[in-house]
Amino acid sequence: MKRGVSVLALACWASTAQAQAVGGADKARPVTGDPGISSMLVMDRPEFRVLRDYAEPGASRRMHSHDDATYHVLTVVTGQLRLTIEGQSPIDLTQGQVIDLKGGAKHTFTNTGTVAATIVEVFGKAPAATAEVVVTPLLHASVQLESGGKVIQIDPWSEAGLARAKPADLILVTDDPIHHLDPKAIAQLRKPGAPVVVPAASQSKFAEGTALANGETRTLAGVTVEAIPAYDIKPGEPSHPKGKANGYLVTLGGKRIYFAGVTECVPEIRALRNIDIAFLPMNLPLDRMAPAAAAECANAIKPKMVYLYHYDQNYAAGKTDAAAIAASIQSFRDAIRGGSIEFKDGAWYPQKK
Asked: 116-136: buried (b, 16+ CB within 10 Å) or exposed (e) per residue?
């Protein structure tokens, strides 16, 4: 065995990877210059990145390196490979074997088998530099983020007036009602060429949008954006079916910031971890995300900081029950009191003139 390389018989780990990695090749993108090789981003976290690669029989990945990786673990999930690390002898790998490469090591591989090979690669990241993130609540579901000179607008809505809003490098839209998808507000705030991310189901209503389906991750305007499913558990109208709307998890200024959109606390939300700032809806129709449910959701994902938003469903119609709204916010605060979550009270609903 060559120095710096270990072949690990981690059967349990490989079994878990296989359960996640097999399938989905149709979503992988061809690697330019490497016929028969395709790759897809599975996960992008502040600490690590996961890629899933596919290699057709006889296909080779050119000699390359991942220079930003602090470590690199490669697992052969299906098939067999011949891996060559620069300056070392080739190694033949079969299903279930794991290689621990030095971060940034140059390497190449060839599928020496007769069936397509599936490879999972995990790359460590250096700690991200943190920067101040400025949050400006605008109205209802409309939020502005700023960090390091970059501006993100979430669900910009003309009803807010947008006098405080800044031109956006990136716009995220969670759903298609006007208080989420407002073409006029987007046109007002969008910098030339700035990406506008919309749920895949909403792209027909905003053709210029970059569609992101539930579970997909893209890096846009230098920001990692993951689409988190947003949907109802309790049936009834208005209905928010699974697959129609997105929440978003973004990494900005070294912080993981989650915008839930209009949703109940579904399993995909409960699985979130290491959230710095979360925006959760409350008081949704049909008693969805009542204060107790919203607080239980916050306690489940344990963000360092939480904002309530999208909680006055009657504001636009001028029928706000201020006392009931204040009581619901207090109920939420009481339910998270004693934990480690900091509550931030945003000015979401200015008095109508």
From this structure: bbbbbbbbebeeeeeeebebb
Residues 93 and 147 in one domain: no
Q: What is the pLDDT of residues 144-192, one digit of tens each?
A: 999 999 999 999 999 999 998 999 999 999 999 999 999 999 999 999 9
Instruction: Enumerate the H helices of the chain as residue ranges.
Output: 11-21, 183-189, 267-270, 291-301, 322-336
CATH of the domain at 278: 3.60.15.10
Q: pLDDT, tens digit, for every residue of 241-267?
A: 999 999 999 999 989 999 999 999 999
Positive or negative CA dihedral for 297, 299, 303, 304?
Answer: positive
Give the angle subtended at the CA of 212 by the CAs of 178 and 44, to the nearest 5°.
130
Which of 105, 125, 145 is at the close of a domain? 125
Report d(CA 171, CA 180) in Å as an integer: 11
